[in-house]
Amino acid sequence: MKAVAYTHCHPVDHPDVLLDLNLHEPHAPHGHDLLVEVRAVSVNPVDTKVRRNADPAGEPRVLGFDAAGVVRAVGPDVRLFHVGDEVFYAGAVNRPGSNAELQLVDERIVGRRPRTISFAESAALPLTSLTAYEALFERMGVPRGGREPVLVTGGAGGVGSVAIQLLRLLTDHTVITTASRPETRQWCENLGAHHVLDHSGDLAAQAKALGYPVRFVFSTTETPRNWVALTDLLTPGGTIGVIDDLHDADVTRLKSKSGRLAWEYMFTRAVHNTPDIAEQHRILGEVSRLVDEGRLRTTLGRHFGRINASNLQQAHAAVESGTMRGKAVLEGF
Questions:
Q1: Angle CA(329)–CA(134)–CA(121) in degrees, nearest 5?
Q2: How many other CB atoms are found less than 10 A from the CB of residue 22?
Q3: First-to-final CA distance of the chain
Q4: DSSP code for 268
Q5: SMART domains given for it (predicted)?
Q6: Could you say which DSSP state residue 235 is in?
Q7: What gap in Å lies between CA 187 and CA 326, rounded to an integer?
Q8: Calpha distance 282→11 (Å, rounded)
Q9: 333: buried, middle or exposed (CB in 10 Å: 19+, 13-18, 0-12)?
Q10: Is 76 exposed, middle or buried (0-12, 13-18, 19+ CB in 10 A)?
Q11: pLDDT digit string (tens) for 152-191?
């Protein structure tokens, strides 16, 4: 089967950073696995981080943690899907990825893709939707009821773009987000943000100037750089949810406010086969329904063409640049 993989860690401008290969097809699905014919994929920051830092020691590793496709075979324990079903999912970081014509994936982390949008538009949604939903409503405990401000940093990124929409659709909270360029600011406003702060300036001062006490902060990017500002603007007893690395950020800044740090790692359920692993199937079902009802928008930002090494290299470079609006998507082999 056709696949795009890497054999050594290289910077994104290296000629062999990603390779077009012909690999053996996956074995017949066992247990809860589906064998999916991949139609479209998207590129996330996790793709670039793994490629830069996890050397496969010469063995080709297929990346890709978002896909939309068609079920071609099912394992003996599968109960949620049938051959021919159109699906979307984010996969698992400890299994071969979606940058291949065929992929095995556990049905319990798979959803039926929205039927009102394309495969490419569907592939833009799974990882970011799961991350945003789990972070806001499970890890951080943002209530569905009530009216209070929630700050989402990096609103034009993939996760931020979904988080804005979920907060507007599922709560009555005031959505505050951040962006630094006119086009990204407009993107956030179009998605429903009530206020857009400039994250290149003094975030704490801007937030306080709005006059809202901020009890929930969802930091989707550049957490170490923004850490002092985020802990300054957080109200006592508040929560900061993070999805990136803290590095040398001083967590003790939360102590005087009895603040809470809430980690979100979307792969936790799949990697650890948690008892509630099928919750991801349910969340993706809700996302699909919201899309088909015309309430949730795809966050496809740029289509990079067919799934091959050259186009994926360009998509990786765009994601690494930190200037993407929405998601980088590729379609077809």
A1: 20
A2: 8
A3: 10
A4: H
A5: PKS_ER
A6: E
A7: 9
A8: 37
A9: middle
A10: exposed
A11: 999 999 999 999 999 999 999 999 999 989 999 999 999 9
What single-letter DSSP state applies at residue 277?
T
Would you list the domain boundaries of the chain? 2-127+275-331, 141-263
The rounded distance, in Å, linking the Cα atoms of 326 and 125 is 10
Dump the DSSP string for 35-86: EEEEEEEEE-HHHHHHHHH---TTS-EE--S-EEEEEEEE-TT--S--TT-E
Q: Give phi and psi for 214, each to the nearest 5.
A: -105, 110
- How does residue 200 score in pLDDT terms, banded at 50, 70 and 90? confident
pTM comes to 0.96
> What's the CA angle centered on 133, arms 92 and 125, to 5 degrees?
60
- DSSP result, 102-123: EEEEEGGGEEEPPSSS-HHHHH
Q: In terms of CATH architecture, what is 141-263?
A: 3-Layer(aba) Sandwich (3.40)
- CATH 3.90.180.10 for domain 2-127+275-331, yes or no, is yes
15 has a pLDDT exceeding 90: yes
Residue 151, pLDDT score: 98
The two three-digit tokens of residue 177, written as one number: 């987000």
pLDDT for res 199:
86
DSSP state of 252: G
108-142: buried (b, 16+ CB within 10 Å) or exposed (e) per residue?
A: bbbbbbbeebbbbbbbbbbbbbbbbbbbbbebbeb
Cα-trace Rg, the chain = 20
Who contacts 305 (Cβ-Cβ below 8 Å, separation ≥6)?
311, 330, 331
Q: How many CB atoms lie within 10 A of CB 252?
A: 8
